[in-house]
Amino acid sequence: MVHTASITVPIIGYVHTPYVEKFGVPRQPNLVDVEGVIEFVAPYDQPAAFEGLEGFSHLWLIWQFHQNRELKKTSEDMGSNSELHETSAAESFRPQIRPPRLGGNEKIGVFASRSMYRPAPLGLSVVRLDRIEVIDGRVRLHIIGADLVDGTPLIDIKPYVAYSDSISAAVSGFAVEAPKLHPVYWTRLALWQKHQLISLHVLSSNQLPLIERILALDPRPAYQSDGQRDYGMSFDQVNVRFGVQSDVIWIKEITAR
Amino acid sequence: MVHTASITVPIIGYVHTPYVEKFGVPRQPNLVDVEGVIEFVAPYDQPAAFEGLEGFSHLWLIWQFHQNRELKKTSEDMGSNSELHETSAAESFRPQIRPPRLGGNEKIGVFASRSMYRPAPLGLSVVRLDRIEVIDGRVRLHIIGADLVDGTPLIDIKPYVAYSDSISAAVSGFAVEAPKLHPVYWTRLALWQKHQLISLHVLSSNQLPLIERILALDPRPAYQSDGQRDYGMSFDQVNVRFGVQSDVIWIKEITAR
Question: Coiled-coil annotation: which residues (chains A, B) (predicted)?
C-alpha cells in the first residue's frame, strides 16, 4: 500500500459556461471566445475580496477536473474518506498518457502534458476578465475564453502578472503552436435548421461563430481517419451533429436540446 | 458554522532551493536565477512520467504555502481531520490583504493578489527547466528561478505552453512592471568577510550576484522609512546582515550559518 501526504483545499465557486458536456470543450483556454460566469460560494463571494481585481485584464483559474473518470470511481468506491482516497490516487497513478495532439497513439509522460489524469486533478487556465458584477452583495465574474465544462468547481483565482507570467520565447515541446483550424461547412439541412432555430430564439446569431470555431478545432477524441462516422456535440441550447471528410468539418444537423 | 465542499490532493514532491527561510524569497519567480531541485515522492518519480518534458523550456509549479501561519495554526489546533480544517478555513477567511507592493498600508482584495493568505494555500510559479536527471531510477528536475523556500511541498507541474500562457499585452493592475532594483553596496567589514568565506569555500563566487540581486529587490516585509534598523537574511550557507539608507542597500556583515 502506497501512502503519500496530501492537502485539502476548499472549492470557492463554480464556473458556468455554454459547454454542456466535455466533448467540444477546447483543449486550451482562449481558443474560443465563449462567455462564462464564475459564481462564488460564501464567504468567498464578498466584494471586498475582489477589490483591485478590476485593474487586471486576465486571470488564472485553478479548477478541478471533476469529470475525471478515476476521480468519480474513487469517490464512489471509497466514500468521502480522504485517507483511502489518497492511497488510491497513488496506487492508481498511471505515468503515461496519449495526448490528442499527437494523434492519440503516441504516449508521453503525464507531467509533460496537461492531461486530466494526473495525481492532483487540478487544471490551470488563463481567461480574460470581462467585468465584475455584484448582485445582492455577492460577486460574479464575467470571463471570456474558458476551456471548462459548465459547473466546473473552482479552487483559486490569481491575477495574471504579465512581467512574470508572459514568456513569449518559451519553447513548448510538442505543443509549439495553436492547433490548426479546419474549414467548417453546413449541409443544406443544417443551414435550414439553423435559420429555424434563430427565428425561434433557441439559437442566437452570436453563437454561430463560437460553434464553428469549436468544430474548426476538431473536438474528436483523437484524429481519426474514419470519414464515415458522425459525432454529436451539445452546446448551450442546441445539439450539433457533424462529420469529417478529408479535413473538412461538415455540420449535418443542428437541433434544440 | 460555515461549511464548504473541498478536495484533497497529494503532495508529489518537494522543491529544494538555497532560500533557507521565507525572508529574502523574491515575490515572483524568475527575478533571481537561483538553482533549485525538485525531488519527487514515489510513485510520482518514475522517468516514464516525465517523457517528453525535455522539449519544454519552462514549467508551471503548483505548490503549497506551507509556511502560511493560518495553516500551521489550523493543523495544530485541529489535528488532521480535514472536515474541521475546511470549516476553519472558511471561518477564518480574511477578504483583504496589504500587498508589500503597495507599501504595506493599502488594502486590496485577496483575489486581486497572489498573497499566501487565501482559501486554498496554493502558489503558482513559472520556472525554467534546466535539466532532467535520473538517479537510481528516480527523477530529479533541475530548475532555475524558483521563488520558493527550501522544502516547499509540490502539488503539480505542468508544461508552459507559450501560445496559450504567454499574454504579453495583459494589463496587470498594480503589478504593472517588475519591481525596481535598489543599488547594493558592501561595507568594508562585509567585503573582507566575503573574501574570507570564499577562500574557506563556505561561499562560492557564483552566489554573490544572487545575494546582491535578492537584496536589490528589497526583501523587507513592506517599504519602511526607518533607516536605523538592520535586517538579517539566511541564504544557503551564509547569514547576511543589511540595512537600507535612502534607497541604497548596505551589506554590513556576511557570516557562515
Answer: none
